[in-house]
Amino acid sequence: MRNVAIILALALLAAVATGQDEAAKSTDTVWENTSYRVKATVPAGWTQTGKEPKSRGSWVELAAFGESRSEAKLTISVQASRFPNADSMIKWQREQFEKDSGLAVLRDEVRPATKRTPKGVLFEYTYQYQRKPQHAVAAYWVHRERRYRVYATVREVGWKTIASDIRAIVKSVEFTSRAFSKEIHNYTDEAKNFRLYFPEGWTVKLPARGPRVQFTSAKRGVAVWVYTDSSTGKLDSDWTRHLRSLGDADAKIAKKTDPTRHPALGVEVGAVEYTKMIDGKLYRYRESVLTHRNVFYRVVLAAADPAFVGGVSDYEAMVKSIAFMR
Amino acid sequence: MSEVRHAATIVEVFPMRLGGEVLLDVTIRPDVEDGFPDPRPNDLLVLASGEELKIWAAPKISHPKGSVQFNVQFQAASVTEVTLEEGMAVALQPR
């Protein structure tokens, strides 16, 4: 029965289509700074005027763009951040805009976290420059101890013609670092007191029976399951009992690492790799097992050979990210 | 303050007006490259009208397409009242 469930789960993997981001129009230009791993899509009509990062006061301007008809200018900048989180940055930024009497804020909008950006804030406002009204947009995000800003300004007379472009550029900003994925793809199980990160491209399912949670990567054709069971309270005992159960289930153990202390978790973690033949097909498994507060956890990577190898790196990152709330 | 003035032309003016931040970023191109000094904080940018603007920061020298350009920045809000436009003749007066 369990084998059938595994086969069904793996068959499901092949059928699941990967989610794709909205495709940029062919006339758009995708700009990316690979050092900071920040990216934006710039519509046709805009040209990049500044390609080399340059200092702008306390900011480093990563890129500058201009639109010739409206004479709009837009920059993407970064600076070291002293803000511990988005909320503190948004609060401080609001205070700055509120107390600046030289500006008339038209819109103050918290931008919720998305798959690609942390929570941020956007201000749309007008001001006088050389006695002429200007329109501006400034959007801010805090990400990995840095503050990012998209700033655009245009004469008020040109605003209407370019507003949708500016909004689209702000909306297109995304952070592509793996660390960002860690922040947004966290799976938390309050009842079983654990959480872990799962990478981009993996989907989560809560099966009715069997594992506590199932992560699948359709692209790689692999699955990761987290099982929880009652514990004896000592990993040594749980570990021995588990190895015995694997033998009973006809698993062919290829490699095992007896429990050693996990530096981040502060608990002992054991690992075992094994194979099983299911309906004439070879499946490979890797498990990390640990005991915490009388719960026995098993994080299992499973795939038909040879797809297994393609899932190892993501699996290791997931195991490394496991944390307990209590 | 030196009395020597070095002629230049404004290439770009970029007002950076944000909550709590007022910065005017001006790119100038020397009319004659030889002998044109690197702008420094507290140097003056002198306009054709005679107005003198004190440079707050001169952060970067750029060399687009082989020519030399300088970015100079002004921080005071009052600078935003002065007309600075692309193509305007100015002069850099070192302190």
Please provide a written account of the structure:
The complex is a heterodimer of chains A (326) and B (95). With 326 residues, chain A is an alpha+beta fold. Chain A has two domains: 2-18 and 201-321, Protein Transport Mog1p, Chain A (3-Layer(aba) Sandwich); 29-178, 3-Layer(aba) Sandwich (Protein Transport Mog1p, Chain A), CATH 3.40.1000. In chain A, 25% of the residues lie in helices and 45% in strands. Chain A contains six helices and 20 strands. In chain A, the strands form four sheets. In chain A, strands 3, 4, 5, 6, 7, 8, 9 and 10 form an eight-stranded antiparallel sheet that branches. A seven-stranded antiparallel sheet of chain A has the order 14-15-16-20-19-18-17, sandwiched between helices. In chain A, strands 1-2-11 form a three-stranded antiparallel sheet. The longest helix of chain A has 17 residues, at 156-172. The model of chain A is unreliable at 4-23 (pLDDT under 50). Chain B is mainly beta and 95 residues long. Chain B has a single domain (6-93), classed as Beta Barrel (Elongation Factor Tu (Ef-tu), domain 3). Helices cover 0% and strands 49% of the residues of chain B. Chain B has a seven-stranded antiparallel sheet with strand order 4-3-7-1-2-6-5, with no helix packed on it. Chain B starts with 5 loop residues before the first strand and ends with a strand. The mean pLDDT of chain B is 82. The chains are: A alpha+beta (326), B mainly beta (95). Chain A binds chain B through residues 49, 52, 54-57, 64, 73, 75, 93, 96-100, 102-103, 105, 123, 125, 127-131, 134, 136, 138, 151, 153, and chain B through 12, 14-23, 25, 57, 59-60, 62, 71, 73, 75, 77, 80-84.
